[in-house]
Structures are given as C-alpha cells and as structure tokens.
Amino acid sequence: MRLSLTLLSVLGLTASHAALAQSAPDAPITPAARAAVVETLGRQLKSQYVFPDTAAKVAAALTAKLRHGDYDAAASSAAFGDALSTDLREIGKDGHFRVRFEPEFRAPPSEDGPMTAEQVARGRQEIAQRAFGINRVQRLPGNVGYLDIRGFGPTAFVADAYTAAITLLSGTDALIIDLRQNGGGEPESVAWLLSHFFAEGDARHLNDIYSRPDDKTRAYWTSPAARVRYTRPIYVLTSHDTFSGGEECAYDLQTQKRGVLVGETTGGGANPGDYVPLGQGFIAFIPTGRAINPVTGTNWEHVGVKPDIAVPAVGAMKTAYAAILKDLAAKATDPRDRQGLAGTLASVEKDEIQLPVYTPRR
C-alpha cells in the first residue's frame, strides 16, 4: 500500500498524501531545528536508501554543510527544504530525492496494512476527479489512436479505466501513447496497461523491483486478465519531464520491442521509494528500491530512457504521427485508402491538423 501512496504523490491522488498536492504554509526555522532535521535525515538515509554506501556519503556531506553554515541563509522552512532537496539530488545523483515542509503529513500505520473504507472511498473519488490519470483519448484522422496518460494510479482504482481507453482505441490501425508529461506512479499499473499490448497467451516479464527494507525482489509480468488486446503498431512520446513510472512504461515497451520511442531522453529516475517523517514538520522522499529490467539487467537511473527517434518533445507528436501515416500508406492495398492516408499526411506536414500540444514544465 505504501508504495502506491508514495509514488502517486506526484498526482496528489491518494487520501493519505493528499496534503502533498498543496503547498503547506511557510514558517520560520531555527538553527536547532535545521540541525535536528539534518541529523534525522542522515539516519533515515542510512537505514532506508537503496544504496547504503551512497547514503553514508550523502549523510556525511549534509552534516558537513550544516556545520559549515551553508544552510544559515535558509531562514524559512520552505527554503530549507528546497536547499536540502537540491543538495540531496546533486550529492546523491538521484532525481527522486525531495524534502518538503508538510506539518500535516501522516504516514500510513504499516506498509502492508489495509486502507480503511473511508480512505478507499476518498482515494477513488480523488483519482476519478483526475480521470484516472488519463488526460486524453482520441481517434485521429487516418484511424490513428492517441492516449495521453499523466500518471499511474493504484491498480484497483485505474484498471477498468485503462481497459476502457484501450477498448475505445481498439479499432485504430496504430496507437500513439503520450508520456511526455507522465511523472510516474504504481509499477503494477504500468504492467496492467502494458498487458493490453501483447497477444493473449503472450506473457511478458516486464520489470523487477528490489526493496532494500525488505531485502526482496518483486517481479512484474503482464496479466492474463486483460480482456482487450491491442497488437497493432505503437509509438511512444517521451520528454525530459517523463519520469519514474512513466519512464518504466517507455523502457518496458522499448526493451520488449513493442513500441517505437519518439522524443527526448527521459528524466532518469528508476529508484522507487517512500516519504518518511523527519520531525519539525519536514518529510523526505527516500528511494528504497531499484528497478531491474529482465532484458537488459539494468535500468534508466541517471541516464534516462533514450528514444529510437530523437526529436524535441514539442515536435514528437507530429514526427510520430507522420511516420505512422507513411507506414500505413505504404502497406495499404486499397488505392482509395492509400490516397486518403497520403492526403492526411500532407495535411499533417502542412500543420493543417490540430494536434495535442505539449508544454514543457521547465
């Protein structure tokens, strides 16, 4: 449960972490409070971070910076959290690290404990209000499907929505999956979505995640329960903003040779984790696990997922759409279909068809 709640904080979808979607009121911070937070953060890193050697190095570096007075200028809680976040990422070389001032944060009572009926109901409502992380489902001219998915919610909440989206697009001749603004989420939900993209009976081992606190590795496979299957060509749009679970989705499709990636190299965050309290109203996201791809034996941490066709993210949609139309036209056996696809392609190249717009976050 905790893994789902933590990874979904990027969407502000869960009951336990709903406060993370809103900015907490800022407050002054004393030198004693800064010292206490750094000390607790160091302990949490050493006990939780997936790479123990790096944890020890980062903890020592933060303590040294505190003693040197590097955080003296951070007079507010928000500024101190930002300063710690920056140093954690730069010293630890892990984009998942983050420190926030969230005095209302309440951690789940146990990692495996069930959510209450109230939590389930509130979680369902919140994720439904965000369309289950699905921003857009569209059939484009030339019978090309388009699916814009911004994050992967808890599988129990989003599975039916994913299946419904693929059902709507099941009659298209090719599919574009837009992950350019996908910040991550639950790996089980990534596996559920991808289960729709392999023929029935074609089981695929997609990903493994090692957890340091448990010292266990969990395997993620496609599910035979996915009742709708889409086996036509797939193109995947990526950007520098694509992160974590969004990167896994792209990487899995690429390593399974099921999709063509178009766009930019992704953000490079492959280490899932959890928010932990630091005291003084602060919390930290600490990666406690690492992804292990069964095909490559590694992951995309630090390096990102590299596209097959490298183009700026703002032009990735047009590039992928044009490539699909060219391919469909070349394979068309009916002259009228071929002519229609060629006409659509000409309109795309002249920017006469309005395409979904991508706006970079940074």
Provide a descriptive summary of the structure in words:
- With 362 residues, the chain is an alpha/beta fold.
- Among the domains are: 25-101, no CATH class; 140-273 and 287-319, 2-enoyl-CoA Hydratase, Chain A, domain 1 (Alpha-Beta Complex).
- It has ten helices and twelve strands.
- The strands form three sheets. It has a six-stranded mixed sheet, sandwiched between helices. Strands 1-10-9 form a three-stranded antiparallel sheet. The protein has a three-stranded antiparallel sheet with strand order 6-5-11, covered by helices on one side.
- Helix 8 (245-255) links the parallel strand 7 and strand 8 (260-263).
- The chain is elongated.
What's this entry about, in short?
The protein has helices at 2-7, 31-48, 52-68, 77-92, 117-129, 155-169, 187-195, 245-255, 316-331, 335-349; strands spanning 98-101, 134-140, 144-149, 174-178, 205-211, 216-221, 234-238, 260-263, 273-279, 282-287, 289-292, 309-310.
